[in-house]
Specification:
With 186 residues, this protein is of the alpha+beta class. It is 13% helix and 23% strand.
């Protein structure tokens, strides 16, 4: 059931919670840190465009509610991390990543930032929407038998890198999303 565009093994691992378990076991204290770690996810892409702090990651007309993100990257002692590279990506308000949607420009809703002297970065975008995972293979059969839905809640992806620090991959979720507590991908 795996093809060039669909990896049922990874989808199964994510749907059963195995991927989350691996992240928890590999992130010190069995995941007991301030920021939960996640997998890179299937929609990350190399070479997101460098974006000025405070700039927009909207690269083509993308109607939807405005989103303003203001973040500070800190170490475990609360000290700001200066010069960290932060890769951001998220779905559109319709629930599609740009490589899935011919209406969106290449690299829409993606950006790469560098934290400033206070560990800060920020950007403007549109609010993402949740989206369904594929159900045309064995994982779809599993979800149906288990009476589970196939939706991910709305979220932003973060990949944070700096030499001398462990790479952090995480997601921030929209707290009002009705699928938040039942995410098909744990």
């Amino acid at each position: 059931a795996t093809s060039e565009t669909n990896n049922e093994a990874i989808l199964f691992s994510d749907t059963m919670g195995f991927s989350t378990l691996v992240c928890l076991l590999n992130n010190g204290g069995h995941g007991a840190a301030e920021t939960a770690s996640a997998l890179l996810a299937p929609f990350w892409r190399l070479n997101s465009p460098r974006t000025e702090n405070g700039g927009s990651i909207i690269r083509s007309p993308t109607p939807g509610p405005a989103l303003f993100v203001d973040c500070t990257v800190k170490d475990m002692k609360g000290k700001p991390i200066v010069g960290a590279e932060v890769d951001i990506w998220h779905s559109s308000p319709e629930g599609f990543y740009e490589q899935q949607d011919p209406k969106q420009a290449d690299m829409n809703l993606r950006g790469k930032f560098t934290t400033d002297a206070k560990g800060h970065f920020g950007f403007r975008s549109v609010k993402p929407a949740g989206y369904p995972i594929p159900i045309d293979g064995p994982v779809g059969d599993l979800l149906r038998v288990a009476h589970r839905h196939n939706y991910r809640p709305a979220h932003l992806h973060f990949l944070i890198l700096k030499e001398g620090f462990k790479t952090m991959i995480s997601q921030i979720y929209a707290p009002e999303d009705d699928k938040l507590e039942t995410d098909a991908q744990f």
